Amino acid sequence: MTTRFVALILLLVAGVAHAEPIPFETFIKLHNGMLEAELVSTAGRPDYGSDSNQGGVASGIATVSTTRQLSWLANGNIPYTTIVTLRDGVVVNIKRSKKL
């Protein structure tokens, strides 16, 4: 096999791999005020992430705030999806819902 072919196979396998849902024992360790690095270190790699930037003007100074949502999807073993919202790299909201 060529190196290019092996690299293509590895990319395809990586795209199919999913993150694990967050077990309850880990979920209860999550809290508002955590840094994103601590969150990912505790909960593991998320299934999905989305970003948005919000701008504003305060006291005549332009500001930009980054909001990010990370999602860990439910599976057959752990039926809970967890969505964590971060603002400027800090956890501001944690939502957990049971998959029906």
Q: Which architecture does the CATH hierarchy give at level 2?
A: 2-Layer Sandwich
Number of domains: 1
Helix-strand makeup class: alpha+beta
What's the total count of β strands?
A: 4
CATH topology: Beta-lactamase Inhibitory Protein, Chain:B, domain 1
What is the CATH C-level name?
A: Alpha Beta
Largest sheet: 4 strands, antiparallel
What is the N-to-C succession of helices and strands?
A: HHHEEEE
Q: Compute the gyration radius: what is it?
A: 17 Å
Query: What is the distance, rounded to the nearest whole angstrom, between the alpha carbons of the first and last residues?
Result: 44 Å
Q: What is shown here, in short?
A:
By secondary structure, the chain is α+β, with helices and mostly antiparallel strands.
Indicate the topology.
Blueprint (H helix, E strand, L loop, with lengths): L2 H14 L7 H4 L8 H8 L4 E11 L2 E12 L7 E8 L2 E9 L2
Antiparallel strand pairs: 1-2, 2-3, 3-4
What this model shows, in words?
This protein is of the alpha+beta class and 100 residues long. It has one domain: Beta-lactamase Inhibitory Protein, Chain:B, domain 1 (2-Layer Sandwich), CATH 3.30.1450. 26% of the residues lie in helices and 40% in strands. The chain contains three helices and four strands, in the order αααββββ. It has helices at 3-16, 24-27, 36-43; strands at residues 48-58, 61-72, 80-87, 90-98. The chain has a four-stranded antiparallel β-sheet with strand order 1-2-3-4, with no helix packed on it. The protein is globular and about 50 Å long. Residues 11-16 have low confidence and may be disordered.
